[in-house]
Amino acid sequence: MNPTLLIAEDDDALRDGLKDLFEAEGYDVLPTGNGRTALELWRQYRPLLIVLDVMMPELNGFEVCQQIRREDNQTPILFLTAKAQEIDQVVGLKLGGDDYVTKPFGMQALLARVEALQRRAARARAGADADAMPDEFSFGKSVVSRKRHQISRADTTVPLTLRELKLLEVFREHPGEVISRNRLLNEVWGIDYYGTTRTLDQHIVQLRKKVETDPRHPVYLLTVHGVGYRYAPP
Amino acid sequence: MNPTLLIAEDDDALRDGLKDLFEAEGYDVLPTGNGRTALELWRQYRPLLIVLDVMMPELNGFEVCQQIRREDNQTPILFLTAKAQEIDQVVGLKLGGDDYVTKPFGMQALLARVEALQRRAARARAGADADAMPDEFSFGKSVVSRKRHQISRADTTVPLTLRELKLLEVFREHPGEVISRNRLLNEVWGIDYYGTTRTLDQHIVQLRKKVETDPRHPVYLLTVHGVGYRYAPP
DNA sequence: AAACGATTGACGTGCCGCTGACAACTGGTT
DNA sequence: AACCAGTTGTCAGCGGCACGTCAATCGTTT
Questions:
Q1: CA–CA separation, A232 vs A219, rounded Å?
Q2: Which domain holds residue B74?
């Protein structure tokens, strides 16, 4: 069975275009031009991903999203927005796993976003299912607690900041692999981030202080010159 | 649907000229004279190829490239450069799949570059799909891991630098074939590389240290006098 | 205001890749 | 066989740039 996609967009021409596009890419598409039926379709079919126009009759995109999120906050939602004001609202939602595309947009851009969201959601699902997400995981000689935001080694326990925790998560998910600086920036900071590369270094420095026995000669968080970093499990 | 091209060039006349040229060739063109809108347009449309002037208001070409590469390192980027200094910077980026054209340039030359880049990108895409690119491949008595940037033999594991990894890739793709020095320089260092031939030797030396049991009497990386090198699989 | 995390700039350091000098080698010529 | 010109191997050193580090700054929260 193909992955199913719910498309709620009230412009008939655009909706048909999107339907054709995604069907050509091998998706099953549930099209609708109305917020209320969008909700009904979602309840009935539970699509893997939802594309929501913000401006729609009956229920607008935000309202639909709100309803869906009451029952399910896994399924990724991609908003189609026209005005800058709407964008702010979408961003303001800060709902994990969601994204938006501003009109007008190109088909390639939409495809790329949909696929990125799918990958992200798939990773999240896999991670959640596989180990039921225990609170703690080990890193090097230390043990990290997600809930408590802290890392313990031997007889000391140090707090972890948000960025540090996220970084550790990324390394834990790919032990032994070299992870490029760009990828780290994307995974930890998000896709549209303008910061310098010094920022990443700095956080690595802080992490090494908490993870390594001798921060000057790291054993677990290794740098790969010109590429990125690598976590060498013990 | 036509292939879409993003053209970022702050000289109005030149930009219009390029737009006409490529539209006549059957491309859809997204023109802009500004780095920031270039990024926005890229996000909205995901063009198949990007032509970037280096000198631009708001964000220069390098900065735009850097941002784009954080989310996507497939799409080819063609830089338009005016000064020799800029050229060095472009070459210095070492970003695969990119190219540059120096001003002033002829329209035909530009077209040729664009089409060459398209072909290269298409090949890369096809290749990536075809074999799902396993992480490891064997070389001689060793096993090379791309993700880890390292090579393991018997009981030792040694890190590989960028150049070494690329060289090994080239040899792996053509086992038994003699590969000329020029071809190696092209494939690993890029089309226009000015270095001496000593550079290549040097890297071969380093590689043999990591690949051969007795580096003085190589078994896998053989030199073919007057031509180049040959990888003799075990 | 104080505390904290995140970010950035400035500066020092180390590594990778490049190069020049010279030795060793190869293949061809006498 | 000896020789020679061109090519390759090896070593040591250099330079640029990526990275490590420290400290100052900014923004947010309390």
A1: 7
A2: 4-128
